[in-house]
Amino acid sequence: MAQRISRAKQTIRTSGIGFERPAARARAERLETVLRVLYLIFNEGYTASVGPRLQRVDLSSEAIRLARGVHRLAPDDTEVAGLLALMILTDARRDARSGPAGELVPLQQQDRSRWDRAAIDEGVALLSATLGRGRVGPYQLQAAVAAVHDEAARYEDTDWPQILALYTLLERMHDNPMVTLSRAIAVAMVRGPAAGLEMLDALAADERLAGNHRLDAVRGHLCEMAGNREAAVRHYLAAANRTTNTAERNYLLTQAATVREDGARSR
To answer: Is the pTM of this model over 0.85?
Structure first.
């Protein structure tokens, strides 16, 4: 890394490129790239892509720190505020996402008294201050989804129709299969698992999700909701075989075993 930095400095020195404020369009493009990188860093910290740990707090905390710095430098940019709010609202649930042995605890089973209420209040206030000040962007919509989850006293109190509406807007402005996957969950919660599974059938052909364990994980969950235990077990196992995070794999294997045992007892 030191050698790369040294070579970059030498390239700048010999090229004669001056340090000057970029034009508005170039600045917007560069800022978008910065936000994307911070978003990816945070996501990797919130759920590590590989290794035994579910979370890497060092990465998510650093992403929040840097996002705060960007927000101080660009306080009027609504998407900067939206990304910071998204990070804060999501990170507020961090302590409840894993158990004593580091095992994954899904949203519906989390002890919400362990959520950071001060962080939730900060994130909601930040989001409320930025909404309505201009064109709403993807980060603001994702932050709004996180706020709906955080403000529900119980999982059963979650306003799924509102979450579905937010994901529908997000999908219209942002062609991303992960957004569609999240919308399928919301559709299942509002209209039933069959409707969600129908959406997943269309997603299965999307090459961007090829090999991604989340498609099988969601399908397993919706099949379980629908009472199709055999299919649920099959997809949970497929997802477990594809994920490279140990905590996620253990959770998926546990789900498969639980569903299989429930099916055996019901016979």
So the answer is: yes
